[in-house]
Design a protein that fits this description.
4-stranded mixed beta sheet; alpha/beta; 6 helices; flat; phage-related protein like fold; 306 residues; single chain
């Protein structure tokens, strides 16, 4: 538990010689959560998602209708966690301070809550190659980006079930990732429609991504040949990804991502203020519950670059 903020700690704020005091002058990174997730409201301790397999081809009619079978899919459970934090100010300090600093404590705690959630928001990409999930239980039990995806239908997974690679970002590796996504298969091994249209990169790869996707012709050559990747993908730089890895990158079907990548606000950030009766210390606090996860993996191809 933090100690109360006292006059002794911030004694210079009581000095009238100072004409201006600045609190937290640096801007936070902009929010990117809404561009990635489908927001889901919840009134339960957790939310479970269960998929049902696709229906196979229709057989020839032999005088009676043929009733087809379906295989069950995998269960996914997302369980939001609790978070809270607060500040305590000594009454004497609040009475004696000479500057209008630390008056906006609700705003400060709200910014801290937003920043905390933004860090959580990049975790599906930061840990895309790990099967250890922060909020989620996956019956399939493999990472978001993996070469070991499975199915309960009995269909072969030798092709169309691999959404991870190891190649550094380049025109060649991007083209290969796009082709791999367009060859994804559903749970019964049939081809599905994917439209990779978004390239997600850490800030360190942003210039490279723009160069690949916006150069009109002669990319890395002097022949002036047309660059077929120009305009094919939007580029999204997740600056917080640099805190985990500066080389990994992801190709995404943005429409499918917004359907299968979920953010649950069980309780949106709340702020409270109270006065301690025994000490007259003023307390500000914030509380929220949130979680994230994915229902399916077929919206993304990730490259885990060594």
């Amino acid at each position: 538990m933090g100690s109360p903020i006292t006059s002794e700690q911030f004694i210079r704020l009581l000095d009238t010689r100072f004409k201006e005091v600045s609190e937290n002058a640096w801007n936070e990174l902009p929010s990117q959560k809404d561009s990635l997730y489908k927001a889901v409201s919840s009134d339960s301790a957790w939310e479970e998602y269960f998929s049902v397999g696709a229906v196979g081809d229709i057989p020839a009619h032999n005088g009676r209708i043929n009733y087809l079978s379906q295989s069950p899919g995998y269960v996914t459970r997302i369980e939001p966690k609790e978070y809270s934090g607060g500040l305590i100010f000594e009454r004497k300090f609040l009475d004696d301070k000479k500057y209008n600093v630390m008056n906006s404590q609700v705003a400060s705690l709200t910014r801290a809550a937003q920043r905390t959630q933004e860090k959580f928001a990049v975790e599906p990409f930061a840990y895309a190659f790990s099967s250890a999930f922060n909020y989620m239980y996956s019956e399939e039990g493999v990472s978001l980006c993996s070469d070991s995806h499975t199915t309960k239908s009995g269909a072969s997974t030798s092709t169309g079930f691999d959404n991870s690679g190891t190649s550094a970002l380049s025109p060649t590796s991007l083209a290969a990732a796009r082709l791999a996504m367009r060859r994804f298969r559903g749970d019964i091994g049939e081809r599905i429609d994917t439209d990779p249209d978004l390239l997600i990169v850490p800030d360190s790869l942003y210039d490279t991504a723009l160069e690949i996707t916006q150069t009109a012709s002669g990319l890395y050559s002097g022949e002036g040949t047309k660059n077929v990747q120009q305009g094919r993908f939007k580029v999204l730089s997740l600056r917080r990804l640099d805190d985990y890895d500066t080389n990994n990158w992801f190709l995404v079907d943005s429409r499918a991502m917004k359907e299968h990548l979920l953010w649950i606000d069980r309780i949106k950030p709340e702020t409270k203020m109270t006065v301690d009766f025994d000490t007259f210390a003023v307390k500000w606090g914030t509380y929220f519950r949130c979680g994230n996860g994915f229902k399916d993996w077929r919206w993304v191809y990730g490259s885990n670059v060594s």
